[in-house]
Amino acid sequence: MLRLLSLALSLLASQAMAYPALQDTELYTQKTTDCQDVDLATWQHPARTVLEKNGIKLERVQLCNQGRYPIFQGEVPYDPQGQTKDFFLPLYEQLRKANGKWPYVLVASNYGEMVYVSYPKNDSIALAYENFEAP
């Protein structure tokens, strides 16, 4: 009986922590419209250079909201929500310059995490996170 109770609690906990599929996240259902894929074979942009120099393997880039809100999707070398601020904060600063201070989303496909990055007028970096079911 005790074993059955443990199994039931484990199943409930895993269901409570289930994340939506990427296409069902707030990013795609509430925050963006008219997302268009960029052809990675021909796309050249300073943001691409920054991402690749930092070891991010781009899988997909989309431009949303009349082409002013990029979504950079790829494998990142570290967990964006882990103890890796020494990696990500310099990356976000480099992307501030490369992307002209426009906000964007970094989708860490290998961690099932998204980082919403914006640059308020006080020159700081604002971050928000959303999780999704990693494939």
Write a short abstract of this structure.
32% of the residues lie in helices and 25% in strands.
Low-confidence stretches: 11-15
Distance between the termini: 34 Å
**H/E topology pattern:** HHEHEEHEEE
Number of separate helices: 4
- Structural domains: how many: 1
CATH class division = Alpha Beta
Rg over C-alpha atoms, rounded to the nearest angstrom: 17 Å
Based on helices, strands and strand pairing, what is the structural class? alpha+beta
**Main β-sheet: number of strands, strand sense, barrel status?**
6 strands, mixed
What share of the residues lie within helices?
Answer: 25-40%
Q: Write down the overall mean pLDDT.
A: 89
Q: What is the beta-strand fraction?
A: 25-35%
By CATH, the topology is: GMP Synthetase, Chain A, domain 3
Strand order of the largest sheet: 1-2-3-4-5-6
CATH architecture: 2-Layer Sandwich
Choose one word for the global shape: globular
Q: Tell me the quaternary state.
A: single chain
Describe the 3D structure:
The protein has a single domain (19-131), classed as GMP Synthetase, Chain A, domain 3. Helix content is 32%, strand content 25%. The chain has helices at 2-16, 26-31, 46-53, 85-98; strands spanning 36-37, 57-64, 69-75, 104-108, 113-118, 126-131. It has a six-stranded mixed sheet with strand order 1-2-3-4-5-6, with helices on one face. α3 (46-53) packs antiparallel against α4. The radius of gyration is 17 Å and the shape is globular.
